[in-house]
Protein backbone atom coordinates (compact mmCIF):
# COMPACT_ATOMS: atom_id res chain seq x y z
CA UNK A 1 0.00 0.00 0.00
CA UNK A 2 1.21 3.50 -0.86
CA UNK A 3 1.80 5.93 2.00
CA UNK A 4 -1.01 8.52 2.06
CA UNK A 5 1.59 11.31 1.92
CA UNK A 6 2.09 10.45 -1.77
CA UNK A 7 0.05 11.15 -4.89
CA UNK A 8 0.15 9.09 -8.10
CA UNK A 9 1.35 10.81 -11.30
CA UNK A 10 1.78 9.50 -14.85
CA UNK A 11 4.84 9.91 -17.04
CA UNK A 12 3.94 12.02 -20.08
CA UNK A 13 7.31 12.54 -21.78
CA UNK A 14 10.90 11.36 -21.61
CA UNK A 15 13.93 13.01 -23.20
CA UNK A 16 17.33 11.33 -23.26
CA UNK A 17 20.35 13.68 -23.27
CA UNK A 18 23.12 11.07 -22.96
CA UNK A 19 23.73 7.57 -21.56
CA UNK A 20 23.62 9.00 -18.04
CA UNK A 21 21.26 11.97 -18.28
CA UNK A 22 17.58 12.23 -19.06
CA UNK A 23 14.56 14.42 -18.34
CA UNK A 24 10.96 13.43 -17.86
CA UNK A 25 7.62 15.10 -17.26
CA UNK A 26 4.72 13.82 -15.18
CA UNK A 27 1.14 14.97 -14.70
CA UNK A 28 0.90 17.62 -12.00
CA UNK A 29 -1.56 16.93 -9.21
CA UNK A 30 -3.79 20.05 -8.84
CA UNK A 31 -2.87 20.34 -5.19
CA UNK A 32 0.91 20.27 -5.74
CA UNK A 33 2.08 23.90 -5.43
CA UNK A 34 5.74 24.86 -5.22
CA UNK A 35 8.06 27.85 -5.41
CA UNK A 36 10.71 27.90 -8.17
CA UNK A 37 13.88 26.33 -6.74
CA UNK A 38 12.12 23.80 -4.51
CA UNK A 39 12.34 20.02 -4.82
CA UNK A 40 9.82 17.20 -4.81
CA UNK A 41 10.22 13.80 -3.20
CA UNK A 42 9.55 11.24 -5.90
CA UNK A 43 8.78 7.60 -5.24
CA UNK A 44 9.08 4.57 -7.47
CA UNK A 45 7.38 1.33 -6.49
CA UNK A 46 9.74 -1.68 -6.36
CA UNK A 47 8.41 -5.02 -5.13
CA UNK A 48 5.71 -3.28 -3.10
CA UNK A 49 8.19 -0.85 -1.48
CA UNK A 50 8.41 2.83 -2.35
CA UNK A 51 11.97 4.03 -3.01
CA UNK A 52 12.03 7.81 -2.63
CA UNK A 53 14.56 10.46 -3.72
CA UNK A 54 14.69 14.26 -3.80
CA UNK A 55 14.36 15.91 -7.22
CA UNK A 56 14.44 19.63 -8.00
CA UNK A 57 11.57 20.75 -10.18
CA UNK A 58 12.76 22.03 -13.58
CA UNK A 59 9.41 23.33 -14.82
CA UNK A 60 7.95 26.64 -13.74
CA UNK A 61 5.34 26.97 -10.99
CA UNK A 62 2.87 27.95 -13.78
CA UNK A 63 3.25 24.82 -15.95
CA UNK A 64 0.52 22.19 -15.94
CA UNK A 65 3.07 19.38 -15.77
CA UNK A 66 6.12 18.74 -13.56
CA UNK A 67 9.51 18.28 -15.20
CA UNK A 68 12.61 16.68 -13.68
CA UNK A 69 16.21 16.22 -14.87
CA UNK A 70 17.97 13.05 -13.73
CA UNK A 71 21.37 11.46 -13.56
CA UNK A 72 21.68 7.69 -13.96
CA UNK A 73 23.91 6.33 -11.18
CA UNK A 74 25.14 2.83 -12.12
CA UNK A 75 23.68 0.49 -9.46
CA UNK A 76 21.88 3.45 -7.82
CA UNK A 77 18.83 2.09 -6.00
CA UNK A 78 16.56 4.72 -7.54
CA UNK A 79 18.03 5.79 -10.86
CA UNK A 80 18.95 2.32 -12.10
CA UNK A 81 15.15 1.75 -12.11
CA UNK A 82 14.09 5.24 -13.08
CA UNK A 83 16.17 5.06 -16.27
CA UNK A 84 13.77 2.40 -17.61
CA UNK A 85 10.71 4.65 -17.29
CA UNK A 86 8.11 4.31 -20.02
CA UNK A 87 5.37 6.70 -21.09
CA UNK A 88 2.27 6.14 -18.97
CA UNK A 89 4.21 4.64 -16.02
CA UNK A 90 3.15 5.69 -12.53
CA UNK A 91 5.47 7.60 -10.20
CA UNK A 92 4.53 8.85 -6.75
CA UNK A 93 5.14 12.36 -5.56
CA UNK A 94 4.95 13.57 -2.00
CA UNK A 95 2.08 16.03 -1.55
CA UNK A 96 4.24 18.91 -0.30
CA UNK A 97 7.38 20.44 -1.86
CA UNK A 98 10.58 21.01 0.10
CA UNK A 99 13.61 23.25 0.14
CA UNK A 100 14.91 26.74 0.76
CA UNK A 101 16.89 27.35 -2.42
CA UNK A 102 14.36 30.00 -3.39
CA UNK A 103 14.80 33.68 -4.12
CA UNK A 104 12.37 34.58 -1.32
CA UNK A 105 15.09 33.69 1.20
CA UNK A 106 17.01 36.89 0.35
CA UNK A 107 16.18 40.07 2.25
CA UNK A 108 19.60 41.75 2.50
CA UNK A 109 21.17 42.76 0.21
CA UNK A 110 18.11 43.70 -1.86
CA UNK A 111 17.89 41.92 -5.25
CA UNK A 112 20.20 43.36 -7.90
CA UNK A 113 22.65 40.78 -9.27
CA UNK A 114 21.75 37.07 -9.30
CA UNK A 115 24.46 34.47 -9.85
CA UNK A 116 23.19 30.91 -10.40
CA UNK A 117 26.11 28.46 -10.28
CA UNK A 118 25.36 24.81 -11.10
CA UNK A 119 27.16 21.56 -11.74
CA UNK A 120 25.43 18.79 -13.70
CA UNK A 121 21.80 18.18 -12.77
CA UNK A 122 22.13 21.04 -10.27
CA UNK A 123 20.99 23.34 -13.08
CA UNK A 124 17.42 22.06 -12.57
CA UNK A 125 16.16 24.55 -9.93
CA UNK A 126 17.70 27.44 -11.86
CA UNK A 127 15.80 26.56 -15.06
CA UNK A 128 12.64 26.75 -12.97
CA UNK A 129 13.59 30.14 -11.46
CA UNK A 130 14.41 31.53 -14.90
CA UNK A 131 10.88 30.73 -16.05
CA UNK A 132 9.35 32.76 -13.24
CA UNK A 133 8.50 36.36 -14.25
CA UNK A 134 9.28 37.61 -10.76
CA UNK A 135 12.95 36.68 -11.16
CA UNK A 136 13.17 38.93 -14.20
CA UNK A 137 11.31 41.78 -12.53
CA UNK A 138 13.39 41.72 -9.36
CA UNK A 139 16.95 41.56 -10.72
CA UNK A 140 19.06 43.73 -13.00
CA UNK A 141 21.66 41.11 -13.95
CA UNK A 142 21.27 37.35 -13.99
CA UNK A 143 24.33 35.17 -14.59
CA UNK A 144 23.73 31.44 -15.16
CA UNK A 145 26.91 29.36 -14.92
CA UNK A 146 26.53 25.69 -15.80
CA UNK A 147 29.51 23.37 -15.33
CA UNK A 148 29.72 19.85 -16.77
CA UNK A 149 32.50 17.43 -17.72
CA UNK A 150 31.79 16.90 -21.42
CA UNK A 151 29.94 18.89 -24.08
CA UNK A 152 27.35 16.12 -24.38
CA UNK A 153 26.34 16.72 -20.76
CA UNK A 154 25.36 20.34 -21.45
CA UNK A 155 21.60 19.79 -21.39
CA UNK A 156 18.85 22.41 -21.76
CA UNK A 157 20.80 24.60 -24.21
CA UNK A 158 17.75 25.18 -26.41
CA UNK A 159 15.59 25.85 -23.36
CA UNK A 160 18.05 28.43 -22.02
CA UNK A 161 18.13 30.18 -25.43
CA UNK A 162 14.32 30.07 -25.55
CA UNK A 163 14.03 31.58 -22.06
CA UNK A 164 16.53 34.29 -22.96
CA UNK A 165 14.51 35.21 -26.07
CA UNK A 166 11.18 35.03 -24.23
CA UNK A 167 12.29 37.43 -21.50
CA UNK A 168 14.36 39.69 -23.78
CA UNK A 169 12.15 42.71 -23.06
CA UNK A 170 12.42 42.37 -19.29
CA UNK A 171 14.66 44.78 -17.38
CA UNK A 172 17.03 41.98 -16.32
CA UNK A 173 19.71 40.77 -18.67
CA UNK A 174 20.73 37.08 -18.71
CA UNK A 175 24.34 36.09 -19.31
CA UNK A 176 24.84 32.35 -19.81
CA UNK A 177 28.31 30.93 -19.16
CA UNK A 178 28.82 27.22 -19.88
CA UNK A 179 31.86 25.44 -18.43
CA UNK A 180 33.12 22.11 -19.83
CA UNK A 181 35.95 20.81 -17.64
CA UNK A 182 37.19 17.72 -19.51
CA UNK A 183 37.03 18.95 -23.11
CA UNK A 184 37.95 22.13 -24.89
CA UNK A 185 34.72 23.48 -26.37
CA UNK A 186 34.36 26.71 -28.27
CA UNK A 187 32.29 29.23 -26.34
CA UNK A 188 32.75 27.42 -23.01
CA UNK A 189 35.23 27.98 -20.20
CA UNK A 190 37.14 24.91 -19.11
CA UNK A 191 38.37 25.34 -15.55
CA UNK A 192 36.55 24.47 -12.34
CA UNK A 193 34.36 27.15 -10.78
CA UNK A 194 36.54 27.83 -7.69
CA UNK A 195 39.57 28.52 -9.91
CA UNK A 196 37.54 30.76 -12.22
CA UNK A 197 36.38 32.77 -9.22
CA UNK A 198 39.80 32.99 -7.57
CA UNK A 199 41.48 34.15 -10.80
CA UNK A 200 38.77 36.71 -11.58
CA UNK A 201 38.10 35.00 -14.94
CA UNK A 202 34.42 34.38 -14.20
CA UNK A 203 33.84 38.05 -13.38
CA UNK A 204 35.73 39.08 -16.52
CA UNK A 205 33.59 36.85 -18.77
CA UNK A 206 30.38 37.87 -16.97
CA UNK A 207 31.41 41.53 -17.17
CA UNK A 208 30.21 41.83 -13.58
CA UNK A 209 31.93 41.83 -10.19
CA UNK A 210 30.87 39.81 -7.16
CA UNK A 211 29.87 42.45 -4.62
CA UNK A 212 28.90 41.98 -0.98
CA UNK A 213 26.30 44.77 -1.30
CA UNK A 214 24.71 43.51 -4.56
CA UNK A 215 25.26 39.77 -5.17
CA UNK A 216 22.89 36.91 -4.52
CA UNK A 217 24.83 33.72 -5.31
CA UNK A 218 23.18 30.31 -5.42
CA UNK A 219 25.20 27.08 -5.68
CA UNK A 220 23.65 23.72 -6.54
CA UNK A 221 24.85 20.22 -7.37
CA UNK A 222 28.02 18.33 -6.51
CA UNK A 223 28.87 18.83 -2.80
CA UNK A 224 32.60 19.17 -3.47
CA UNK A 225 31.94 21.91 -6.00
CA UNK A 226 29.54 23.59 -3.59
CA UNK A 227 32.09 23.49 -0.75
CA UNK A 228 35.07 24.68 -2.82
CA UNK A 229 33.08 27.39 -4.58
CA UNK A 230 31.63 28.60 -1.31
CA UNK A 231 35.15 28.95 0.10
CA UNK A 232 36.37 30.84 -2.97
CA UNK A 233 33.43 33.26 -2.64
CA UNK A 234 34.05 33.76 1.06
CA UNK A 235 37.71 34.47 0.27
CA UNK A 236 36.62 37.46 -1.84
CA UNK A 237 34.39 38.79 0.94
CA UNK A 238 30.93 37.30 0.31
CA UNK A 239 28.96 35.85 3.24
CA UNK A 240 26.61 32.91 3.74
CA UNK A 241 22.90 33.79 3.67
CA UNK A 242 21.41 33.20 7.12
CA UNK A 243 18.00 34.36 8.31
CA UNK A 244 17.59 36.35 5.11
CA UNK A 245 20.91 38.17 5.24
CA UNK A 246 24.02 37.45 3.21
CA UNK A 247 25.04 36.51 -0.29
CA UNK A 248 25.51 32.73 -0.64
CA UNK A 249 22.80 30.03 -0.60
CA UNK A 250 23.60 26.38 -1.31
CA UNK A 251 21.99 23.04 -2.05
CA UNK A 252 23.95 19.77 -2.07
CA UNK A 253 22.61 16.84 -4.11
CA UNK A 254 24.37 14.15 -2.09
P1 LIG B 1 22.07 7.27 -4.53
O1 LIG B 1 22.35 6.08 -3.69
O2 LIG B 1 21.07 8.27 -4.04
O3 LIG B 1 23.41 8.05 -4.87
C1 LIG B 1 24.62 7.31 -5.11
C2 LIG B 1 25.73 8.24 -5.51
O4 LIG B 1 25.45 8.79 -6.78
C3 LIG B 1 25.93 9.48 -4.63
O5 LIG B 1 26.68 9.17 -3.49
C4 LIG B 1 26.66 10.38 -5.57
O6 LIG B 1 28.04 10.02 -5.64
C5 LIG B 1 26.01 10.07 -6.91
N1 LIG B 1 24.90 11.03 -7.27
C6 LIG B 1 23.68 11.12 -6.70
N2 LIG B 1 22.94 12.09 -7.29
C7 LIG B 1 23.72 12.58 -8.28
C8 LIG B 1 23.51 13.60 -9.26
N3 LIG B 1 22.35 14.27 -9.32
N4 LIG B 1 24.51 13.85 -10.12
C9 LIG B 1 25.68 13.16 -10.07
N5 LIG B 1 25.94 12.20 -9.16
C10 LIG B 1 24.98 11.91 -8.28
N6 LIG B 1 19.38 14.19 -8.66
C11 LIG B 1 19.07 14.44 -9.93
O7 LIG B 1 19.50 13.67 -10.82
N7 LIG B 1 18.30 15.50 -10.29
C12 LIG B 1 17.81 16.38 -9.38
O8 LIG B 1 17.11 17.34 -9.74
C13 LIG B 1 18.13 16.14 -8.01
N8 LIG B 1 17.68 16.98 -7.04
C14 LIG B 1 18.04 16.76 -5.75
C15 LIG B 1 17.65 17.69 -4.77
C16 LIG B 1 18.05 17.50 -3.45
C17 LIG B 1 17.63 18.51 -2.40
C18 LIG B 1 18.85 16.37 -3.10
C19 LIG B 1 19.28 16.15 -1.67
C20 LIG B 1 19.21 15.45 -4.06
C21 LIG B 1 18.84 15.65 -5.39
N9 LIG B 1 19.22 14.75 -6.38
C22 LIG B 1 18.92 15.01 -7.69
C23 LIG B 1 19.91 13.49 -6.07
C24 LIG B 1 18.86 12.37 -6.00
O9 LIG B 1 18.04 12.55 -4.85
C25 LIG B 1 19.48 10.94 -5.95
O10 LIG B 1 20.63 10.93 -5.17
C26 LIG B 1 19.81 10.45 -7.33
O11 LIG B 1 18.59 10.29 -8.02
C27 LIG B 1 20.52 9.11 -7.32
O12 LIG B 1 19.71 8.16 -6.64
P2 LIG B 1 20.19 6.64 -6.56
O13 LIG B 1 19.37 5.89 -5.55
O14 LIG B 1 20.24 6.05 -7.93
O15 LIG B 1 21.67 6.76 -6.01
Describe the structure.
The protein has helices spanning 79-82, 124-130, 133-138, 157-166, 193-198, 201-206, 223-235, and strands at 6-18, 21-27, 39-46, 49-56, 65-71, 90-94, 113-119, 141-148, 173-180, 215-221, 248-252. The chain is of the alpha/beta class and 254 residues long. The protein has a six-stranded antiparallel sheet with strand order 4-3-6-1-2-5. β8 (141-148), α4 (157-166) and β9 (173-180) form a beta-alpha-beta unit. The chain is globular and about 55 Å long. The two termini are 28 Å apart. The structure holds flavin-adenine dinucleotide. Flavin-adenine dinucleotide is lined by residues 39, 53-56, 68-71, 73, 76-80, 99, 120-121, 124, 251, 253-254.
Beta-sheet strand percentage?
25-35%
Write down how many β-strands occur, each being a DSSP E stretch of 2 or more residues: 11
**Chemical compounds bound to the protein:** flavin-adenine dinucleotide
Strand order of the largest sheet: 4-3-6-1-2-5
